[in-house]
What does this fold into?
Amino acid sequence: MGDTNQNANEARPAGISDFDVVVVGAGFAGMYLLHRLRGLGLSVRVIEAGSDVGGTWYWNRYPGARCDVESMQYSYQFSEELQQEWEWTERYATQSEILRYVDHVAERFDLRRDIQFDTRVTAATFDDATSRWVIETDDGARLRAPYCIMATGCLSSPNKPQFEGQEDFAGPIYHTGNWPHEGVDFTGQRVAVIGTGSSAIQSIPVIAEQAAQLTVFQRTPNYAVPAHNGPLDPAKVREIKADYAGFRARAKQTPTGNLFEVGGPSAMAVSAEERAREYEARWQAGGLPFLAAFADIMFDPEANQTIADFVRDKIRAIVDDPAVADLLAPKNIIGCKRICVDTGYYETFNRDNVALVDISETPIARFTADGVSVDGRVYEVDAIVSATGFDAMTGALLNIDIRGAGGAALRDKWRDGPKAYLGLALASFPNLFMVTGPGSPSVISNMLPAIEQHVNWITDCIGYMRDQGLGRIEAQIDAEEAWVAHVGEVADLSLRSTCSSWYVGANIPGKPRVYMPYIGGVPVYAQKCNQVAADGYEGFALS
Ligand code: FAD
Ligand code: N01
It folds into this structure.
């Protein structure tokens, strides 16, 4: 990695510092924001809690961590030179390869000099009198700028459920989203993994190979599709790079910004044999395109059932012990919780050193000094891995005390669930933008193009404000309410909103149940954003 000492920490002035824009977060979103805003000639300071760039890929270093959007698509497209020169090695990039890419981008565009690391933003307050945001950090410093942009990430606030007796446990407790940078050697150890979401499903096969004994505590089983990862075919890479712009443009026309073939319109319109052929072909090809076998899978419960049954049969064919297979086979709608992409996950439960503990009926009672207690039995372990996910989409924003015009608090505004105009801006919070906020496609889509689309829109907007001699932009409440209602109506059409997932906040006790991402599709959403801008920022008050 680059030398993180060569950054904005070196010249940290005392008192209040003025910038044109303050950006919070230095993941893919904050990095690209910095690059684009510099291009407008603006002074920018990025504040990042971590010690280096990368966001998700800086924090999530658990064994087996990798992307499940193909690497040729999970990358920036704003620079043709960058996308031509960077060589991905695998179909799905590992966490470490993505971090090397992030480092390359930071060096290539000389980003670190305007990023202040190891600093957490605690509050952001809009000063009505001066139309400036005052941003406070955990080192007691204050920054001031006309614009504040939250690039704080949708999956950056770890969910760390507190178990009774947690402090009694003698060994280490790791969270996948905050993994030690030096790595963890589980050789010879007895390890517990709590959770069976994507992070768990990626890490369990790798930990099982190293540990003496692995015990998995499962509350709800998840559907996983094989990744069939492997080295990238150089001929395929050459073909994409010969017209990378065209490839990206085609991806933008797909519902999720992720280029793959969507099957026929209806699973129920074809014979059972034809369905099975299609599911099998996609299972063999691997990855997220599996769920796109037919266009109605996420809308018609009967269609959904056919593909869910197919996966359940696969699980029963892979897992030797029928009782374990039964526990691993999900009962709910497939795709309602985010589908997982795995490498040897179900096979891992055939190993002698792996046990599955069902905690759906009887939850973990407590941690003891030497293990995890469920239903009166203590499972003795040396280390615990909490793969319990994130307070998604709103967590990182609500961790900051954000106050808009007249002292309005975001925590009050979002008491009954997040409300935002286009997932980009908030009524009563002038000159504040969010990247991939609630009400935008964000986590339901390929995140890299989603981030670039938001960054481009926000940067263009700030450029427009400057060119027009305007100083204040604020989403109007009626436009925000209409958009929030539309987001909800579209969500209700799909099966995605019907189960308890982090998409609806169900994983966080007390979090209001609202389907947060916009599922109307990337092309429709981008068109709406473009139209709003073309109409002189319709739905915003500019002054
Ligand atoms: P992040 O990468 O989350 O960066 C936000 C940054 O803001 C963090 O570094 C954080 O430290 C910082 N921050 C937050 N609050 C503060 C504060 N108060 N003060 C200072 N700094 C703060 N997406 C896909 O499209 N495909 C995938 O395959 C995929 N795989 C994923 C795998 C994992 C394990 C996880 C957790 C997520 C995955 N995602 C995936 C989603 C991923 O989060 C996005 O793709 C993308 O990396 C988000 O970039 P970002 O810059 O918006 O946010
Ligand atoms: O988190 P999750 P994640 N007691 O919320 C369980 C992205 N991502 O980190 O389902 C016991 O999905 C919880 O159980 P339940 C991707 O978008 C991508 O795995 O609530 N168990 C669940 O099993 C993903 O969706 C990749 O009943 C508890 C698990 O913990 C998102 O990040 C890899 C519990 C949490 O699963 C989040 O994934 C990793 C408790 N108190 C992440 N609390 C790729 O492959 C929670 N659980 C690209």
The chain has two domains: 16-157+392-472+519-542, 166-386.
